[in-house]
Amino acid sequence: MSLSSAQPINNARVDKPGGQRWAHLMARGRVAWVQIVLLLGAAGLLIGSIFFSYWQIILRAPQYPRGLTVDVYVNRLEDMRSVREVDGLNHYIGMIKLTDAASIERAISVYAILLIALLAAASTFLPGIWRTLARLPVIVYPLVFAVDLFGWLYYAGHSLDETAALSSSIKEFTPRIFGTGVIGQFQTEASFQIGFWLAILAALLALVAVLADWRAKRHAPVS
Amino acid sequence: MSKAANFANERVNRRTMIKGAAGVTATGAALGIGARMNGNDAQANALQESVESIAEARGLTPQDIRAALKTFVPSGVHDDYLVFSSGGQSGQVLVIGVPSMRLLKVIAVFAPEPWQGFGFSTETQEVLAGGAVNGQVLTYGDTHHPGLSETDGQYDGQWLFINDKSNARIGVIDLRDFETKQIVKNPHIISNHGGTFVTPNTEYIIDGSQYATPHSWTYAPLESYADAYRGAMTFWKFDRDAGRIDQAQSFSVELPPYWNDLADAGKGPSMGWMFSNTFNTELSYGTGGGDLPPVEVGASQRDMDYLTIINWEKAAEVVAAGKAEDMSGMPMIPMSVAVEEGLLWLVPEPKSPHGADVTPDGKYIVVSGKLDPHVTVYSFEKIQQTIADGDYEPDAYGVPVLDFESCVEAQVELGLGPLHTQFDDQGFAYTSLFLDSGIARWRLGGEGIDDGWQLIDMIPMQYNTGHICVAEGDTAAPAGKYMIGMNKWALDRFHPVGPLLPQNFQLIDISGEELELIYDMPIGIGEPHYVQMIKSERLENIWEVYPEVGWNSITQSPSDVATQISEERVERDGNNVTVYMTMIRSTIRPDFFEVKAGDTVTMHITNVEMAMDATHGFVMPGQNINLSIEPGETTSVTYVADTEGTYPYYCTEFCSALHLEMMGYFLVSP
Known about the structure:
The structure holds 2 protein chains of 2 kinds. In chain A, about 55% of the residues lie in helices and about 15% in strands. Chain A contains 5 helices and 5 strands, in the order H-E-E-E-H-H-H-E-E-H. In chain A, strand 4 and strand 5 form a beta hairpin. In chain A, helix 1 packs antiparallel against helix 3 and helix 4 runs antiparallel to helix 5. In chain B, a hairpin with a 4-residue loop joins strand 2 and strand 3. The interface between A and B is small, with 7 and 9 residues.
């Protein structure tokens, strides 16, 4: 890929003295380079985040001295023994299974992430508003993840089966998305993990690219 | 008070006792307890005072306090060593932690055991049936000598074997789940005191006959004893990959009708050979209903019996060369062939010997005289030289008997009734003295050791010590530190529990100048014989739960009748009803099924849990069914529902708060 192929930027068909036009082109080219690097970085980080846990919840109770640790990846839950055990415990209070929650999200997440990453990576070559729009998904993605997670936590805690064995002793609640909580004899400790922070970093890089793009446009000579 | 004082074999008045205790605690404070308290003098003093007051209140001597400190293992802390102990007549194996001497588990081997469901499930019934004798499934065993699998002469923590002396059977235990996987019946012999001893890489499991009989369960009148009765040494091939003894690759060597006792495999320079002592070379078979002396007299007439020496590597070659005879489906090398091939030798040994133990370096074989106050030490090198020199005469069966003097390295006088010898990492040997009721410590000799082959000291035992065990003390690299004496009598050691008394395991600290008794452990489930002590770190492959849901723990592979959640069902085929069942806290699915009286019911039960310790039990009242289904395990059982009625089945492990609710109804309609 050559710089000159970045058509939208190469619009300097302005009548300017030779030297000044050349300097302007260089400045625009540098901005484009920076954006490409930022967005390729963002795409790489986002794709890389697939391989890391986004969110983790640790349940501690007297009879679980090692705790039960469930890691939420964008496409899977780990480890399955803990998931199985947590689901087994949750059935006493009539909570949905972890494996049933966000199943659509887990099924499409990898494709969605690849698409988001591709859009971000290609955005620099898109014209005008499309460029910004193509960068929006990678920027809002972590927020969408967190909101979706919160939604499922809320749903899980507010759709308890009223006929469950311990339904009378556990009232509706929302499991904490961050920090510690208490449910029955369990202490829960929830935290965002490296996958989520990678996605955040990707969003920040994309945001910087957008800002750089806007700034470059604002300072561009009027054609 | 008097009993506590007796325990330490001394009478101490209260005053000296407390002074002594103070001395011990002051020493403890100086040596480290104070330091652990961050050097806080006030706390150290408080500790000293509290120890003194506890010692005074409980009547403890300084020795008692030392022993307590050496054996106490705090809550949640694991033991440094594990002991695998014969369970004697219980037909089981005991697992004990050292130094705490806490009983960790009882592994069912030859006898049904309800807690583990052993002998109740179809799978474990098949294991027991593998050891059937003449078609009869036996439900006991006289377990004697556990043998841990070895690699390069050291325990590898993978497999455990144990013999049932009374029926010449061997059990195979997998040390991933501590469960018995196989029982084999020796087709050649009836009783096998000389098992189980493994060769240095577990190539073979050695299994020697005790009481001579006609081979392969045949009849021969006692008067034909000398001609028709025979001994045998069996070498069971162990297939590690399959986790099974491979009978097709195993063989026996025919022996004269002497009674083989204990055995040991050579190692290092004596690799490829094995040694077993024999008694009753007098060929006594008791009174025979006539005027002959009873065995205890008849078998104790000669001053010398024999140490049997077999080159098992050569024996395997002889079998491979087709020179063995098939006998009851397993090759037997005839005595004449064994002699001709030079793989079978005898050497005299003092009267009615018991233990035959190879030193860690593999250079010497120590034999205890039992009715002779010495241990006799044979040099493997000298044995080989004597063979090379042709310095031997045949016995009545044509087996060459090597010259005694030419083979002996040393004789060490230890005391009365020497039985078994073990070794430590400091060049000492330890030999139990049954009649003197103690254990002798003596120094091994040999090249470069001037003060070897002599008695150092002796510790009294309570009472009548049989086998002893030093940590990894029968391997090529003993660990030392601890020794256990397995005492046949307990007498006054424990609170009376009626005329049948427990045995007494005594733990001894052998790391210091003085041998120090530090714990008495009663064994109330049979008379153990041998035990082996292994560093717990060697047992690194122990499973917490089975590898996946639906596991057949006998084949150690996924079960083809595994049932996952939502796959539960009842299938009918004429009078046969098959139930595919799951168990998970706190539900049994299905929780109801009904059959007609006379139907045959087969249940395949899967514990679909994967959580450590989430074991479920299962009972079906009135059907003699009690199962244990560990996390991930699939277990089966079949029974005929011949009596109409209403049967509540349930989980027998208190698995959860709603454990009592974990049940179902089985109806048998008319």
